[in-house]
Design goal:
The chain is globular, with a radius of gyration of 18 Å. The chain has a single domain (26-262), classed as q2cbj1_9rhob like domain (Jelly Rolls, Sandwich). By secondary structure, the protein is mainly beta. It contains 2 helices and 22 strands. The strands form 6 sheets. Strands 3-8-9-20-17-22-15-14-10 form a 9-stranded antiparallel sheet. The protein has a 5-stranded antiparallel sheet with strand order 13-16-21-18-19, with no helix packed on it.
C-alpha cells in the first residue's frame, strides 16, 4: 500500500532505490502509512505514571524508519538498566541453526528481561500501541544488549528466515531499538550502511538525531530515544536496505533494547 503522506520531490538515490528525507514531526494521535497504523499517544506506567505524546520523526519511507525522541522515560531507563543481568551474546549459526557464543561479528553481552516486570510490560504495551494496537503476544521477550569498549555488531539483518527455518510464529516483522546508555559518545550509534544521504543538503536539525558526518544513515545513541523500522516489504520479502550495524564502542559503553514483533502470536 502506498504511503499516506507525500514526500518532497528532491531525493537521494541509494543503490537503485530512492530515499527522500524531510523534517516531519508527528504530533497527531494516529497516522497510518506503509500498512502500519502508528499511535503516538502512549500511556506511561510505573515507575512514571504520566501520559505524554511521543515526538516522532519519519526518516525514511522505503524502508519505513522512524525515530522516536522519548520512547522511554528517564526513570524507566534507570529501572531497565538495574534489571538487566548480562551473559555473552549469541548469534544463530547459518549452517547449524544453533546459537553460537563465539561469533566474531558480535562482541556484546545480552540480558533477557522478565515479562512479568511492570516496566517491561509497559514497554511491550507501548510498542504494540505504537504499531496500531497489535497483539502484545506477537512480541518476543525483550532483549537488552550491552556493548563495552571494543564491542560492536557487524552489519546484519534481524530477520530469521535467512539463518534458520521459520517456526510457527513466523518472521520478525518489525524492530524497535531503544537506547538505555549513551556514554560511548556520538560516533557509536546504529548504522544502516545501504542508505546513503548527503546531510549537507538537508535541514541542520537532522544532526540532532543522526551523525551528519557519516556517509550512511547513522543514528546517534541518546538514552530514552528509539528507532523503529520494518524488516519486510509489503509482499513479505526481506527489505535489503534494513541491513544495520552496531558501530564499535571506542570509549564508555552503549546499551539498548531489542524489541521484535513477529508475524503471529508467540
Amino acid at each position: 500500500m502506498a504511503s499516506a503522506i507525500s514526500r518532497p520531490k528532491s531525493a537521494n538515490t541509494v543503490e537503485g532505490t530512492s530515499l527522500k528525507a524531510s523534517w516531519l514531526t508527528v504530533t497527531s494521535s494516529l497516522i497510518i502509512f506503509t500498512s502500519i497504523a502508528i499511535s503516538i499517544l502512549v500511556q506511561q506506567t510505573k515507575p512514571s505514571t504520566q501520559s505524554a505524546p511521543l515526538l516522532t520523526t519519519i526518516v525514511s519511507y522505503d524502508p519505513l524508519i522512524i525515530h522516536v525522541e522519548d520512547f522511554l522515560t528517564s526513570s524507566e531507563v534507570q529501572h531497565l538498566l538495574d534489571l538487566a543481568t548480562y551473559q555473552p551474546s549469541t548469534v544463530i549459526d547459518d549452517e547449524t541453526g544453533r546459537h553460537d557464543r563465539l561469533a566474531s561479528g558480535r562482541r556484546s553481552s545480552t540480558a533477557m528481561l522478565p515479562r512479568g516486570d511492570a516496566v517491561v510490560q509497559s514497554v511491550i504495551t507501548r510498542s504494540a500501541r505504537f504499531q496500531g494496537f497489535v497483539s502484545e503476544d506477537q512480541f518476543e521477550q525483550i532483549q537488552a544488549t550491552r556493548y563495552l569498549e571494543g564491542g560492536e555488531y557487524v552489519p546484519h539483518y534481524d530477520t530469521l528466515s535467512a539463518r534458520r527455518p521459520l517456526d510457527q510464529e513466523g518472521e520478525r516483522l518489525t524492530t524497535i531499538f531503544a537506547f538505555l546508555d549513551d556514554s560511548c559518545g556520538s560516533h557509536c550509534g546504529t548504522q544502516f550502511p545501504r542508505i546513503a544521504i548527503d546531510w549537507d543538503s538537508e535541514d541542520k536539525r537532522w544532526c540532532e538525531i543522526v551523525d551528519c558526518q557519516a556517509r550512511t544513515l547513522t543514528f546517534r545513541p541518546r538514552a530514552g530515544s528509539a528507532v523503529f523500522w520494518k524488516n519486510l516489504r509489503d509482499n513479505g520479502s526481506l527489505h535489503e536496505d534494513t541491513l544495520h550495524a552496531g558501530l564499535p564502542v571506542q570509549k564508555g559503553s552503549k546499551i539498548g533494547l531489542n524489541i521484535w514483533m513477529r508475524e503471529k502470536l508467540l
